[in-house]
Design brief:
Length: 253
């Protein structure tokens, strides 16, 4: 039987890959199997090997963060980027080894600080004598399941346009914590993709370290998962640092 030289070369590479424990190229799987049922059955172990060695992304985009991409009325950092492409880029930056995980406020929370790959602008301003009269306040909830809490902000159309941020703070929750909170809130958002971390929020900022969580967010977290919190007890030192920062700053809305 005649085999083209190209086929024979790929056959050698196919066999070498299997012996080395590496998955064969998909094109070789197709060419080696033909269309017969017997050949298809013979290929199943190789196809299973290829699928088992496919890399599971470290991060995926959690539904809680999608409002930053999809909701034009979202009051925090808006992300003008394709969602799938955004998650892929964050995984790529992490895989480079230049942007490690940083501990957050609880064991299930991590951060990764990366260069801003979007047009996202800063959305927090210092409060000054010149702009403090522009502050507004009101009660709001982040989701339908949460309790409304008192917040304050600068109306985005009442202040100068802020610059594009230098960094993105990618806030991550472990898969276990995300599933616990979804269950407690009666949401069916369990992920079956295998990613160990979910991107729950993205903050545009000019520093590559965590800015203090807002005091009211820390309060909400102590309420427990049923009310939209995480169930983490209050850390008085962190709360004091939060008050010090947010006494002189307010978000844009």
């Amino acid at each position: 039987m005649y085999f083209p030289v190209r086929f024979l070369r790929e056959r050698v590479r196919f066999t070498s890959n299997l012996q080395a424990g590496s998955p064969p190229p998909p094109c070789m799987l197709l060419r080696a199997g033909g269309c017969g049922a017997a050949r298809g059955a013979a290929l199943r172990p190789q196809i299973a090997l290829l699928m088992s060695t496919a890399k599971v992304p470290t991060f995926n985009l959690d539904p809680f963060a999608m409002r930053q991409f999809d909701d034009p009325n979202y009051t925090g950092t808006r992300i003008d980027h394709d969602k799938t492409g955004f998650a892929a880029k964050i995984n790529e930056l992490y895989d480079s080894g230049d942007y490690p995980l940083v501990d957050g406020y609880a064991p299930f929370c991590k951060h990764i600080f990366v260069p801003n790959i979007t047009p996202a602008q800063l959305n927090v301003l210092p409060i000054t004598k010149e702009n403090e009269h522009l502050l507004r306040s009101g009660y709001e909830a982040r989701t339908e399941q949460e309790l409304e809490v008192l917040v304050r902000w600068f109306p985005v159309d009442a202040v100068p346009r802020p610059p594009v941020a230098k960094y993105l703070d990618i806030i991550l929750y472990s898969r276990e914590q995300i599933n616990k909170e979804a269950t407690a809130m009666g949401r069916d958002e369990h992920d079956d993709g295998g990613s160990p971390w979910g991107i729950i929020s993205v903050k545009a900022q000019d520093v590559d370290y965590e800015l203090p969580m807002q005091p009211i967010t820390m309060m909400r977290n102590t309420l427990g998962k049923e009310e939209g919190g995480s169930g983490v007890p209050m850390d008085r030192e962190r709360y004091t640092a939060s008050v010090a920062f947010w006494s002189g700053h307010a978000p844009l809305k």
